[in-house]
Amino acid sequence: MDKREKLSGYENIVTGDRTGVPSPDAAVTIPGASAPEIRSLLGLAVAAVVVGALYFAQDVLIPITLSVMLSFVLAPLVNMMQRLGLWRAPSVVLAVLIAVGVLAAVGTMIGTQAANLTADAPRYAQTIERKVAGVQAFAAARMAAVSKEFAPRSRPAARGPAPASGSVSAPSIVTVSTTGASGDRRPVLVQVVQEQPSPLTVARTILQPILGPLETTVIVLIVAIFVLLQKEDLRDRFIRLFGSHDLHRTTIAMDEAGQRLSRYFASQLAVNTGFGIIVGGGLALIGVPSAAMWGILAGLLRFVPYIGSFLAAVAPIALAAAIDPGWGTAIAVALLFVIVEPLVGYVVEPYLYGHSTGLSPVSVIVAAVFWTWIWGPIGLILSTPLTLCLVVMGRHVKSLEFFDVMLGDRPALSAVDSFYQRILADNPDEALAQAELLLTDRTLERYYDDVVLPGLRLAGIDHARGTIDRARADRMTDAMLALVGDLQDHRDGPSSGAVIPTEAAPPGIVACVTGRGPFDEAAAAMLTQLLGRRGIATRRVTHAAVSRAAIGTLDLSGVAVVALCHLDLAGTPAHLRYLVRRVRQRAPDARIVVGLWAAGDPVPDDAEAARQVGGDDHVATFAAAVAGCEEALRVREPVLEPVS
Length: 644
Fold this sequence. Notes:
Shape: elongated
Number of domains: 3
Mean pLDDT: 77
CATH class of the largest domain: Alpha Beta
Low-confidence stretches: 1-28, 164-175, 639-644
CATH architecture of the largest domain: 3-Layer(aba) Sandwich
CATH superfamily of the largest domain: Cobalamin-binding domain
Radius of gyration: 40 Å
Helix content: 55-70%
Strand order of the largest sheet: 4-3-5-6-7
């Protein structure tokens, strides 16, 4: 390559014209990776960076998180002071001063109680050691008795020869001595003199354990003050980041989320404070030392989900066992926690803010493990509030919806999707379990219209796309027919809102004709069941029986209404019009009700489209089909039998 080619190559690289050198505007792609895979890798990278930042920046993030939580707790108090006429700044300062006073009083009480408990710690330790030794001796005696009772009898093993007396060497004693002037050895006394600590060292030793928590407290209070003062500005910035495309809806959502979190934190703080007061008072009545400290710790540990109360009960039970030679005090303390915790958890909490926090049990446990690993004991206490914040944001901010899906207690799938998934997996038992759960507050007719019929539409869409073959469609139809058969004896309860008919069923027979679609048989079976529950006589007619070749032999005598069950996603096919004509010719006096249950089908609401299809009535739901059949039977003139 000569000098001219080299210069040309360099020029092409600078201008971006050389082959293989991307221009600044060119899209960067990874060979062999699709766009979803790239997004997944990018998401994993972002998650790893976030977790690393949470771990390594905990000295900064923990005070900020505590300040945000404190602002949620103090927000109702600030709002109340503002309603009384105070300005925002004095209200915030006064609320923070109240919080500082409460924290100082709690800290002083804990310190005093801990100091009093430390003085008697050796005596408590001796009592515990004696009890542990007694339990071990009892267990050893029982084990020896059991082994002696069940062990096989055998001769004692012969003992080996005793070791020689010189085989075991005695421990050697090293003596440090010196030789005096007369030749005798004399021991030398050595005295270790510690260096006298300076006043600065003493002050550092005393203040160092205090400066860390004091510094964190000051940062928390300062940040909380600014968060409360700039609440609206911070909300607007958050909306600008996550929801600027729909300011009205996002603003309402953020205000609602902030109010919900404030009410929840305030209610939880009140409940846990009451729990701590009751536990502390009960421990004082029982006679446990430092009862106020254990009550405060019980209220704090109750922020830990599920296991907080049990963790709070361990230390008081152990202390009760240490102060009492017997076991009565320890049993009384255990009974105190066993009685108080269910009352608070199952009576007080549901009354104040509902039984559920909006979090799934698995996510609460996983969040507790995660935040404990990231931030230690502070993370364990803050795990539920932090997870709740993520879930609330996920429910109101579209870009954070995955938090609600992963951590919330709402079903990941809708009732329709869940039903369709169970039928697709050929699992009618789980579909029946879901149906029984949904039927507690709705009628069978509404269940078919709200859940099963949309599920049939999803199945029809997948079948039209070719993702469901004929064999799978037949198995799905069998599963749905099995579900309909299992629900045959179901009776709508009072809570379902069922209307009990007061009039007798009109006379006449309704013939439910199955369409040619793969899932029309299931729809016809459900309509037949619903009509039978109203006392209406029905007949099931297959699609093969109304074909051109077989309709001439079809007996429709005594049929007053013909209901065509048609689930087709191709609009208004011509074969449906021909089917209506054939049925009309075979049963001219019968009223024809056409059930078109495709999603978005315009026929039931469009008079011209309905006229082209034919038929007397056009319905889109099972409820409308049942009502249409009943009305057709009532208005139909009775057919007089000829007199012989």
